[in-house]
């Protein structure tokens, strides 16, 4: 069967793209290889703006916990920095339910969703993608398209098959436990732990879902993630003595920044497949939704005008805000990678919550850099590299 657009991957990016296209009256097919939505391990934290980006009302049933801020722990945990108040609020989602809400709106707009549908091959006509072959419950099927969206995550088949330039694409391996019977104080504050002994070139996290359940995970580079996560849990009996793991998951998170090419002919990449994740935080739900929304709008405009050149409006629009933030966060990450634990402890005495938020999220980097440059040791080693 032929469609105006086919979306590969029913995550935040794919579902937003599908809704935008279908809402304009075009036929859309979403293919998801998993048997359920939201199976990938995820810390599930979003800012309060997530529902606005998703263009849906705040739905209490998809929110596991309200977030009032964060506590960032350097290697010397006694020097922790608290981030709270003002705009530092968000939610811990029940991500599967959140995706169900997005899928419902895509379906209401007219999109078709097929689960357990794994793409096997992209078919070309004169070097241009025009159809794909997928397998659904043992049956081989074909779907033609005018536009194709690859929102199929890390290791994107669409990106590989369609010849996208993925130079610089890098991932950090992660593993996460969902733990019950935890004793985490102040459940409204997420906890982030830094240090080369804690999480080499990454960080560990504790995100409470309620008074006794928490997402506990870690991302590291160059080291075995599970060993470090088990060590972290063991080293914090005040949180986890008597706690039990009820779910374990893992995967890779892109931390190399957005790939240079997100549109190629009639194919667009969105979300993890395009590296559209804030590198330091690993946050990708809102960045992916924004990408899917913009990509879907660009496809609808291109289809209406029968002009695929209009697809370029997607990277142009995305780059104005999100692309810039991702790029700045990547620069900071590369500088922080050079710091040892002593350096991290020193920085913890020089920055406050606002500074950490700006650095991590690629916001007002120049302001924080100017502040750090006043310390000769930090200026020489890291601050100048932020710019």
Features:
387 residues; 3 domains; alpha/beta; 8-stranded mixed β-sheet; single chain; D-Amino Acid Oxidase, Chain A, domain 2; FAD/NAD(P)-binding domain; 18 strands; 28% strand; 7-stranded mixed β-sheet
Mean pLDDT: 92
CATH topology of the largest domain: FAD/NAD(P)-binding domain
Please, what is the CATH homologous superfamily of the largest domain?
A: FAD/NAD(P)-binding domain
Spans of at least 5 consecutive residues whose pLDDT stays below 50 are none
Count of DSSP strands: 18
Radius of gyration, whole Å: 21 Å
**Quaternary structure:** single chain
Biggest beta sheet attributes: 8 strands, mixed
**Morphology:** globular
Please tell me about this protein's structure.
- The structure is a single chain.
- With 387 residues, the chain is an alpha/beta fold.
- The protein has three domains: 2-43 and 96-168 and 258-327, FAD/NAD(P)-binding domain (3-Layer(bba) Sandwich); 72-88 and 170-254, D-Amino Acid Oxidase, Chain A, domain 2 (2-Layer Sandwich), CATH 3.30.9.10; 330-386, no CATH class.
- The protein has helices at 12-22, 50-54, 95-109, 157-161, 225-234, 237-240, 285-305, 313-336, 341-350, 353-361, 365-372, 376-381; strands at residues 2-8, 28-31, 45-47, 63-67, 69-73, 81-84, 90-93, 112-114, 117-125, 128-136, 139-150, 171-180, 189-193, 203-208, 214-219, 244-254, 263-264, 267-269.
- Strands 1, 2, 8, 9, 10, 11, 17 and 18 form an eight-stranded mixed β-sheet that branches. Strands 6-5-13-14-15-12-16 form a seven-stranded mixed β-sheet, sandwiched between helices. The chain has a three-stranded antiparallel β-sheet with strand order 3-7-4.
- Helix 1 runs parallel beside helix 3 and helix 1 (12-22) packs parallel to helix 7.
- The protein starts with a strand and ends in a 6-residue tail after the last helix.
- 49% of the residues are buried.
- The mean pLDDT is 92.
């Amino acid at each position: 069967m032929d469609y105006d657009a086919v979306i590969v991957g029913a995550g935040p990016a794919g579902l937003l793209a599908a809704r935008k296209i279908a809402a304009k009256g075009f036929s859309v097919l979403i293919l998801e290889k998993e048997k359920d939505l939201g199976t990938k391990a995820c810390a599930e934290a979003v800012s309060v703006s997530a529902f606005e980006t998703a263009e849906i009302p705040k739905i209490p049933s998809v929110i596991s916990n309200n977030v009032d801020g964060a506590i960032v722990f350097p290697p010397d945990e006694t020097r922790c920095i608290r981030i709270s108040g003002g705009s530092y609020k968000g939610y811990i989602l029940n991500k599967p339910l959140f995706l169900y809400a997005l899928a419902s709106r895509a379906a209401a707009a007219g999109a078709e969703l097929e689960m357990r549908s794994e793409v096997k091959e992209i078919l070309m006509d004169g070097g241009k993608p025009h159809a794909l072959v997928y397998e659904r419950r043992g049956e081989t099927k074909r779907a033609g398209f005018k536009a194709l969206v690859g929102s199929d995550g890390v290791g994107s088949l669409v990106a590989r098959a369609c010849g996208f330039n993925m130079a610089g694409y890098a991932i950090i391996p992660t593993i996460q436990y969902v733990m019950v019977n935890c004793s985490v104080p102040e459940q409204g504050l997420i906890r982030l732990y830094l240090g080369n002994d804690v999480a080499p070139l990454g960080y560990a996290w504790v995100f409470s879902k309620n008074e006794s359940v928490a997402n506990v995970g870690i991302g590291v580079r160059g080291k075995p993630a599970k060993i470090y996560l088990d060590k972290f849990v063991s080293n914090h009996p005040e949180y986890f003595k008597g706690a039990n793991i009820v779910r374990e998951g893992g995967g890779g998170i892109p931390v190399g920044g957005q790939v240079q090419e997100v549109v190629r002919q009639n194919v667009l990449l969105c979300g993890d497949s395009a590296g559209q994740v804030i590198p330091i935080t690993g946050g990708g739900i809102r960045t992916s939704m924004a990408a899917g929304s913009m990509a879907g709008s660009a496809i609808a405009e291109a289809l209406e005008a029968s002009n695929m050149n209009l697809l370029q409006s997607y990277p142009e629009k995305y780059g104005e805000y999100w692309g810039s933030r991702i790029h700045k966060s990547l620069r900071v990450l590369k500088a922080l990678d050079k710091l040892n634990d002593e350096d991290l402890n020193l920085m913890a005495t020089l920055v406050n919550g606002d500074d950490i938020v700006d650095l991590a999220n690629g916001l007002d980097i120049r302001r924080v850099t100017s502040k750090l440059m006043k310390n000769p040791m930090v200026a020489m080693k890291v601050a100048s590299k932020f710019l």
